[in-house]
Design a protein that fits this description.
The structure holds 2 protein chains of 2 kinds. Chain A is α/β, with parallel strands linked by helices. Helices cover 36% and strands 25% of the residues of chain A. Chain A is built from 10 helices and 10 strands. In chain A, the strands form 2 sheets. In chain A, strands 6-7-8-3-9-10 form a 6-stranded mixed beta sheet, with helices on both faces. In chain A, strands 2-1-4-5 form a 4-stranded antiparallel beta sheet, with helices on one face. Chain B is 75% helix and 1% strand. At the A-B interface, helix 2, strand 6, helix 3 and helix 6 of A face helix 7 and helix 8 of B.
Chain lengths: 252, 301
């Protein structure tokens, strides 16, 4: 692969005695949607959380290896972890709106990094809320608590919140698993749209979703990468027995 | 496990059990009302003879000559409670934050039994410890530091002992409170580039705000009513204290020291009951305030 956005080499992760990620080597293409597939417990969420260094919050975690973003290692570096995390927006399984107003949820990332001018914030917030198709639904109640929104709206708000810190990469961990079909579809369409400017890494176990939006697919099983390749190759011509079995629905 | 399905009907037994629960509930609801009614009835004689403002705002306390002014006791109670809360609140909050957000898990696990021991010690033990340790500490070191001379039996001594007594209590509530906040919420903040401290300040504390207020409210109620330990170190000198280095005489001490003695003095019995009623109302008042803060802030989160 030429100029991968993210390059992972020999990544190993232990939680206490458990070996969660085993010698992970992976290249993630720039401005494409990479889908990480695999049954529950295969380590795909942990891999995602290691990318923006949330895994290390677990005091029992031991992480070895390198993760390079645009060539520079983000694991073994003196660079401030907050700067690294800001390069990546995270969308979790369920929306977790911050305990504040709709407006401040989007403004949060800007405010904590020192952008305080109201005029500037107003403009940016409208921009990002429009980008996730939420503006028209909330423009009259920006001061309301974010928790008053529906789950689908909250997830779009969380996406806007993540986009507002101007990341290069969007990490999404089964972002539609708590959503209704219409909201899920909205998020999927948004991802396809965003992939022209952002590198997306999406963890899912919904095959339909992966077939629908993936450019590049990674299949994980029990902490190892079994197979990876372009979506076309992966779905039409899988090489590994385990991949074939998974695609035929023999395990989830 | 064997499940009995024959015999008296399951629906009958189910009804029986739910009625027991209803009885227990009624008892819990009625108890405070019975206590309140009892206190009011007993206080009626003194309320008949003296105006409420005389009782509340006069500081003259000479039962033998029929003078019953409660302001000295009320102000002592407020002083002791406020200073105790000022000491306890930051300690509890910072400890709870550290234990739940920064410390390793084993640390929290070892703290639980320590907190339980502190919470379970009889208050008289705190009182003795206060007499042996806090009182001399104040008279020998703290008061001279501020250029005061005192025996050590002061509002400050009462407040310190009280603070130490309510710390485990508040801490317990705060730790369980912080543990209920989903880690995903903190992670959402961290992934937006917030530092650990920004996350705690803007997200964790905000999310927990309601709970923190009610924990402190509970702490105040408890502090107000605590009797023995405070009584042992606070000096019990009648009058309005003018600072933390002066002795005080809080309401519960008044009641504990005098009830059952000298009841032949006219109105004395009723006056003491009135002090109990005051305690009841003040605690109710603090609860109402913290409840109001909770209701108002739920609208914004």
């Amino acid at each position: 692969m030429e100029n991968p956005k993210i390059k992972i080499e020999n990544l190993n992760l232990h939680f206490g005695n458990q070996h969660i990620l085993k010698d992970v080597n992976l290249e993630i293409p720039k401005n494409k949607i990479t889908v990480i597939l695999g049954p529950s417990g295969c380590g795909k969420t942990t891999l995602l959380r290691t990318l923006n260094r949330l895994s290390e919050l677990n005091t029992e975690a031991k992480i070895k290896g390198t993760i390079r973003i645009d060539g520079s290692d983000i694991l073994n570096t003196n660079e401030d972890v907050t700067v690294i995390r800001k390069k990546m927006g995270l969308l979790a399984q369920r929306p977790y709106p911050l305990p504040m107003s709709i407006y401040n949820n989007v403004a949060y990332g800007l405010k904590i990094s020192g952008r305080q001018k109201k005029k500037y914030l107003d403009k940016r917030i409208e921009h990002y809320l429009r980008q996730v198709n939420l503006w028209d639904e909330v423009k009259d109640r920006l001061k309301d608590p974010a928790s008053a929104l529906s789950i689908g709206q909250q997830q779009r708000l969380c996406l806007a919140r993540g986009l507002a810190v101007d990341p290069q990469i969007i990490l999404a961990d089964e972002p539609t698993s708590a959503l209704d079909p219409i909201s899920s579809q909205m998020i999927e369409e948004k991802f396809v749209e965003l992939s022209s400017n952002y590198t997306l890494v999406l963890v899912t176990h919904i095959l339909r979703q992966a077939r629908h939006i993936a450019d590049h697919v990674v299949f994980m099983y029990l902490g190892e990468i079994v197979e990876q390749g372009s979506a076309k190759d992966f779905f039409e011509n899988p090489q590994q027995e385990r991949t074939k079995a998974y695609l035929q629905g023999q395990f989830y | 496990m064997k499940i009995k399905s024959i015999g008296i009907g399951r629906s009958l037994r189910s009804k029986l059990h739910s009625s027991w629960m209803a009885v227990c509930l009624v008892v819990v609801i009625i108890l405070p009302i019975i206590i309140l009614v009892g206190l009011v009835l007993k206080s009626v004689p003194i309320l008949d003879q003296y105006s409420l403002s005389d009782l509340l705002f006069s500081s003259e306390w000479r039962p033998m000559s029929g003078k019953f002014g409660f302001s000295g006791f009320i102000i002592s109670s407020i002083w002791v409670t406020l200073v105790a809360m000022l000491i306890a609140m930051p300690i509890c909050l910072l400890t709870a934050i550290h234990l739940t957000q920064y410390a390793k898990k084993w640390m929290l696990k070892t703290m639980y039994p320590i907190i339980d021991i502190l919470a379970g010690l009889p208050s008289v033990v705190y009182g003795v410890w206060g007499v042996l340790f806090v009182v001399p500490l104040i008279s020998d070191y703290i008061a001279p530091l501020f250029g005061k001379t005192t025996s050590g039996y002061t509002i400050l001594a009462g407040a310190i002992v009280l603070a130490i007594m309510i710390i485990p209590f508040i801490l317990n509530v705060l730790i369980s409170l912080f543990n209920t906040i989903p880690t995903e919420l903190s992670e959402a903040s961290l992934s937006l580039g917030a530092t650990r401290w920004q996350t705690i300040k803007h997200v964790v504390l905000r999310k927990a705000f309601i709970g923190i207020v009610s924990a402190f409210g509970l702490g105040i109620s408890r502090a107000f009513g605590e009797t023995i330990a405070v009584l042992m170190v606070v000096g019990n000198v009648i009058g309005i204290p003018k600072g933390i280095f002066q002795p005080g005489y809080p309401l519960p001490s008044l009641l504990a020291n005098n009830y059952g003695e000298m009841l032949s003095i006219p109105m004395y019995d009723s006056a003491l009951m009135f002090s109990a009623l005051l305690l009841f109302i003040i605690v109710l008042f603090f609860n109402a305030i913290s409840r109001m803060v909770i209701i108002r802030s739920t609208k914004h989160i």
